[in-house]
Amino acid sequence: MTQKIIYSNQVDTTLMTIIGVGNYNTVIVLVDENTRRLVLPRLHCLSEAHVIEMPSGDKNKTLDTLTAVWQQLERCGATRKSLLVNLGGGVVTDLGGMAAATFKRGIDFVNVPTTLLAAVDASVGGKTGINFMGLKNEIGVFACARSVILSTCFFDTLPIVELKSGYAEMLKHGMLSNHSDFMELVESDIIPIELESMLELLHKSVKVKEEIVEQDPKEHGQRKALNFGHTVGHAFESKALADGSPVPHGYAVAWGLVVEAVLSHMLKGFPSADLYVLAGFVKSNYGAFHITCDDYDELIGLMRHDKKSRSGEVNCTLLASFGDVRVDNSIGDDDINAALDIYRDLMGI
Amino acid sequence: MTQKIIYSNQVDTTLMTIIGVGNYNTVIVLVDENTRRLVLPRLHCLSEAHVIEMPSGDKNKTLDTLTAVWQQLERCGATRKSLLVNLGGGVVTDLGGMAAATFKRGIDFVNVPTTLLAAVDASVGGKTGINFMGLKNEIGVFACARSVILSTCFFDTLPIVELKSGYAEMLKHGMLSNHSDFMELVESDIIPIELESMLELLHKSVKVKEEIVEQDPKEHGQRKALNFGHTVGHAFESKALADGSPVPHGYAVAWGLVVEAVLSHMLKGFPSADLYVLAGFVKSNYGAFHITCDDYDELIGLMRHDKKSRSGEVNCTLLASFGDVRVDNSIGDDDINAALDIYRDLMGI
């Protein structure tokens, strides 16, 4: 389960080489309406490719969209010797990866993530999938892209909210790595973006994920490190969605990191000084997710329903310190209530 | 890509052991209306399992059926620690394997093929899939069952046509193996079936397939040996379907074996004596697929559309002798016309 990851802002040249070496009889590119308009015209090596366009956004990461992509693969005559290039954010790379992995039992695909979040997260590790019956990534497979081209040169097409959203996952990787990686991130500016230094931060961040995934490709144990911040983050995200005011995934993760760092402090001795630095950075860049104590029960219910939970208990990954990861902690309701209280104090809400 | 294959007519005990060792939190069994009625009641270890029933037959190996199976997996609370038991013929094991391999990015599944064809063919080698846009197994993944339990004890529930259909694939394996394996098959009686000696023949036959698949799990080269008989066989099957009088897959393969053995004789020196033995056995057990020279162009067109063909040429696996396999032969129209003439002579039509 290893994918070749190429770090380069010379995407056109890199992609041209991959296409040349693979000797494909057809090249197809999957885009959404945004990447079709803003990114595709910059890639001259795809000027002759068949284009499949899917609608953007997580709400379109569905079986219907997947079916439409399969149908268009048929119509443009794709064979086992064809290449699918997924050009877009995580929705495009996840759904396109699934389409390629299942079409004729698997054709080659290359991921070219165009958002920071997809670059740092969704395009690495071989996870593909779609949402199903209201559940995120419920149907999918583990499948490796032929190559993943990571670049920062398309990030100028992104809204600031998108950039920050991806940066939250980098923050998580920094915490899973060590103190100096974390400090480098909180001392860097997200905006204005500097493409080459961002590519270096991205490289360092993805390496952290790669090392964890390599040890545990099928998510049986240590890979759960990557869930840090996500049990609580997903609960925030789901609640916001249910309340009709959705929040970006990365923002929910940033707030989730704070709550799970609090739990880490309470239960595993994570240093309070580091917790304060984290909370300060999150508050100034992401604001706060506003909750009151009346919301706690609903949030705990949502945490219990997380895909990683078993038999109805809340399961979190915690840190004893930066880089010292403890997976599979079962957390009691009292501790969650206390952690949410402290989160509100830290965020001043 | 190795699956544990267990040969046993003590299916209930074997399955109970697998379920016990796996420590699953839910066991779900996928059946069709036939195996629900005739086979499921014989397996006491599944008396408490959730039952998902799909309609039988290749025409139901569709995305709609797959979607219904996914929905029912959700409804019965399946998690990553659940087990799906696929109890049926190739349609059930192919679609159930695909459902399990994609549900939450993969849960454990066990295949218990109840037909000879599924036992000898579809349940081994990690191929799963569904038909799509009129194309067989167009959408699917390679995924390994936790175990495959091969038995003959349910074959008493099968129509004779089904048994013979599976036997044709065994005949193919015998030809890919050696002269004595082939002769043992043509000298055995298909009917009446003797369960224990059939289990031995089955074991020997599956070993042939296993060895080929192990060398080439993703079908890049040598695995094409298993396509012997199938380029022509699929063309016969498609034509029969188009003409409104479908034939069983195995019968089409049996006739395809004869035509491709003729081509092997013409182009690779396959011994004529062996060709006559094959043709005699096929004729007496399967009759003949009736064609006239007016059908040749249509058949060649169908052969060109075979999934294994590239750039519109007819591609066949051929034999220089039993066990001496030559993959990737491009066959000209004149040779196919001549081979179909000889086929008609051999079958007396």
Overview of this protein structure:
The structure is a homodimer of 349-residue chains. Chain A has 349 residues and is of the alpha/beta class. Chain A folds into 2 domains: 155 residues, Rossmann fold (3-Layer(aba) Sandwich), CATH 3.40.50; 187 residues, Dehydroquinate synthase-like, alpha domain, CATH 1.20.1090. Helices cover 49% and strands 16% of the residues of chain A. Chain A has 13 helices and 10 strands. In chain A, the strands form 3 sheets. In chain A, strands 1-8-5-4-2-3 form a 6-stranded parallel β-sheet, sandwiched between helices. In chain A, strand 9 and strand 10 form a beta hairpin. The radius of gyration of chain A is 20 Å and the shape is globular. The first copy, chain A, starts with a strand and ends with a helix. The model of chain A has no long low-confidence stretch (mean pLDDT 93). Chains A and B meet through helix 3 and strand 7 of A and helix 3 and strand 7 of B.
